[in-house]
């Protein structure tokens, strides 16, 4: 600090002089009048304390720091402040008011520090930053300020008191003015609030009116739809009777007329059905009846139902692709079929030549149904309008085909009802693709069928039921459908799932056993997954467990910084998940597989299939040699042939699983033997996979073998990328 002025306090008038000098120096340093008053008030309060409690002291004024600050140091040699901590904390009060002076001064300054020791006095250091508009003062300029202040004679104490009174009066005037402005502002806010309340009341009234109108419309549509159905069904039945010649023959002209009547009634019946479904959806009265079904069965039904829509000799082909790799779906099969029927019938109507292709693909816990055509296409400006009620886009084919304009709006509402969404991609003249994506498990169901029910919803099976030969993987995930996906992904692998829906359940599992790895969702509703991750990595007993964070947000850097060993973004592919777990769990272990096969050609073929991997391959030419190698080398996995002389693969498998040393080694059956269903079922209980040697192509053979090895827990470099 560069000292500008020093003042000794011996008498009461010195306190007044300290106030005067503070204002003078502050003025020289470029502070405005308001800051001059703040500084003078703070200094006079602390100086008065020094005089009153310590019978004197020293006040030093200076400039310090960069950027520069006006710094004041006040020291006394009194007995110190006995309750300083309480004073600074706020609750302490004294009869003399010492606490108020210190706390008030601290609020007026940018920096305030006080030190007090019993019998050694008190030192107060406080400062205020100079204005940014004020240029930096040099040492010579500060010396000039010092000479100016010293050259000025102290003012009369009464003049200082008068000036202080004037400052107080100005402050009171400003406060009164602000109070009046606040009163006026409060009045304006009250008026505005009354207007807002009136507007809300009006909006509520209009909302009620619209709700009643909507209910009336829904009731009208529902009632009229029901009323229309009876006569329409009668017209359809009577026209069918006439066309069937049940009461005599028809002339050619009569048959034509009755056919027109039947087509018109069918179109009207279709519109009535769509109106009724729309009314039910909007009224919230439509019921979702979820059940388990196979997509292949659904497609087979659609294929048979919709082929009659193709005109004989038509140049349009309806292609329904066989779904591959999609398991059972738990949703409302009727509504899924209705959505796809609308897509397909629309595609057939507006496609003159080419094809209409129906397909489905599963990504994580979502299945996406697609219907693509080579038709006339839809302009970009109309691609949202087609989902509005009764909207039909003008086109060259519009006059030739009849429609209600309700099929696509109804499909969107039904898809959203099932927890999914609809999208469309189209270009004029090049065709359209309509997609409906929905969860494989209906998300609003309160119960699941037995075969789809996650482990946690079966009252969370006890640790005692775990298989001793499979590594436990703890999953912390609050969505039951995601847990179901994980359970399916780990099925038939070397791992088994321990599913938990809360952090409390996960902690309970960790008290009972140490899993091979933990799959953790950070985005747990009402729970902090980050805290749990820190907890795992901070505990000596759990820090070595690999943690794989799987979540919907890309926060990999944060996860790895907190100790996670791996990171994946949902949805997660099965091979991607298994290979990641294999890497985290087995990356430091030697990767060895044992081939037990009496045919050297097949052993050579398997080695060639795995030539691009880092695996160490052991060979055994018969069952006895294979058992000895398995016990001695402890391979990561065993590839076993069933048809071997003397000691066949069935016997080898039995011996492996009955020996405590080898029972946990995953076994892959690789044989050309023809196995019936009963034998396959028995082998499946003791093996990871059953592969046939009769695979047609080398590409398929490599893919099957790699898939089986990944399920067995091996780390295959580059395999994750090739399968994802």
Question: Could you characterize what this model shows?
Answer:
By secondary structure, this protein is of the alpha/beta class. The chain has 5 domains: 2-155, 2-Layer Sandwich (Heat Shock Protein 90); 182-286, Signal transduction histidine kinase, dimerisation/phosphotransfer (DHp) domain (Helix Hairpins), CATH 1.10.287; 291-439, 2-Layer Sandwich (Heat Shock Protein 90), CATH 3.30.565; 455-586, Response regulator (Rossmann fold), CATH 3.40.50; 592-723, Rossmann fold, CATH 3.40.50. The longest helix has 87 residues, at 157-243.
CATH topology name of the largest domain, in short, is: Heat Shock Protein 90
Strand ordering within the main sheet: 1-2-3-5-4
Q: How is the main sheet built?
A: 5 strands, antiparallel
Give the overall pLDDT as a whole number. Answer: 81
CATH class of the largest domain: Alpha Beta
* Apparent shape: flat
User: Total strand count, please?
Assistant: 22
Q: Any low-confidence stretches, pLDDT <50, length ≥5?
A: 450-462, 718-724
CATH architecture of the largest domain: 2-Layer Sandwich
How many DSSP H or I helices? 21
Q: Taking Cα atoms only, what radius of gyration do you get, to the nearest Å?
A: 42 Å
Count of separate structural domains: 5
Structural class by secondary-structure content: alpha/beta
| Helix proportion | 40-55%
Q: Which strand-content bin applies to the residues?
A: 15-25%
End-to-end C-alpha gap: 67 Å
CATH superfamily of the largest domain: Histidine kinase-like ATPase, C-terminal domain
